[in-house]
User: Which sequence fits this backbone?
């Protein structure tokens, strides 16, 4: 096995229990306008950036679907509830980040979410200073499952992809990490592991707590 010099995290569904909140807010918004099937669409969009998600929605609902206005309404509702305490960290986040820092393992974030939102959420949670580098969806031209965001994170960390674990919960995230040559660790959230995920992931673990002992093994 290659030595591990870095860990690259996804954010939504890995660090924060945010994907369930996103789905709840989308469903509430969709119900207001009589839009059906939005929960399934949300799951198909896991790991995608805003533009890729919009493209998928328009393909499903039609080009005249008012995605931008619905997305803004959903986003306003999401941030309101997040400020009210509905956005919580996943178990083991601080423990894993602390372990990595204590062992001089570089830490990056590779999130499809916009930088403004990422910065606010990490700062509000008090964990932004753990990250050596942060790469967001609006800082790259291609969305996961393209590996661009992971490769950029490795470049900024000055590590080779094979020296980095990538912690992901979504299918598109695992596909991106695998395509980039990182060592994918799947910690499932909304998306249950499939045969494909078992093949692409180096390991599938139930929580971030288990990641500590796995990373410790190298």
Assistant:
């Amino acid at each position: 096995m290659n030595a591990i010099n870095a860990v690259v995290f996804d954010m939504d569904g890995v660090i924060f229990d945010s994907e369930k909140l996103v789905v709840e807010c989308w469903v509430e918004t969709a119900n207001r306008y009589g839009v059906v099937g939005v929960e399934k669409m949300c799951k198909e969009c896991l790991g995608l950036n805003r533009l890729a998600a919009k493209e998928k929605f328009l393909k499903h609902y039609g080009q005249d679907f008012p995605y931008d206005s619905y997305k803004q309404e959903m986003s306003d509702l999401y941030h309101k509830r997040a400020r009210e305490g509905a956005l919580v960290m996943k178990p083991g986040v601080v423990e894993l980040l602390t372990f990595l820092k204590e062992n001089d393992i570089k830490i990056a974030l590779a999130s499809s979410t916009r930088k403004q939102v990422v910065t606010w959420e990490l700062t509000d949670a008090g964990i932004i200073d753990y990250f050596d580098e942060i790469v967001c969806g609006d800082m790259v031209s291609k969305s996961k499952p393209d590996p661009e965001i992971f490769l950029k994170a490795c470049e900024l960390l000055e590590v080779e992809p094979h020296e980095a674990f990538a912690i992901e919960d979504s299918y598109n995230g695992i596909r991106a990490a695998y395509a980039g040559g990182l060592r994918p660790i799947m910690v499932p959230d909304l998306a249950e592991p499939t045969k494909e995920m078992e093949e692409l992931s180096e390991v599938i673990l139930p929580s971030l707590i288990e990641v500590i002992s796995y990373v410790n093994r190298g």
In short: The longest helix spans residues 67-86. Strands lie at 6-9, 106-111, 133-136, 164-168, 183-186, 203-204. The chain has two domains: 6-17+89-217, 19-86.
